[in-house]
Design goal:
Elements: H1 3-14, H2 16-24, H3 28-39, H4 46-82, H5 84-98, H6 111-118, H7 123-129
Helix pairs in contact: 1-2, 1-3, 1-4, 4-5
Length: about 130
Amino acid sequence: MSGRRKAAILIAALGPERAGKVLAALRDEEVDQITLDLSTLGTVDNETRSIILDEFHAMAVAKRFVTQGGIEYAKELLEKSFGPEKAFEVLNRLQSSLQEVPFQFLKKADPAQISSFIQEEHPQTIALIL
């Protein structure tokens, strides 16, 4: 099942008020994608809903403890809570989302400012940044 479909099921499970708050925090394209999946969702059985809610809960717990206590602490906590296999799955998904892309912050910067900052840099440095 795709991540978008899981997100749509999670949003539907939250109910209108909570779901509205979550959707308000998302980017427009994310809202569009989730809304599209919501519109074609149909009935979701309790078992599927429960699995998705458990997965979301495990990811939320892991992410909180990775930022508070490190990856090893999160691994230990997840293994005790969900067993080694589920802990491994959750941490694999989480680690890929925690990896930062170099210079990601530059996407939000004004191009004119970036230009003035790198103007005196070596051409190879400028090429790397661009």
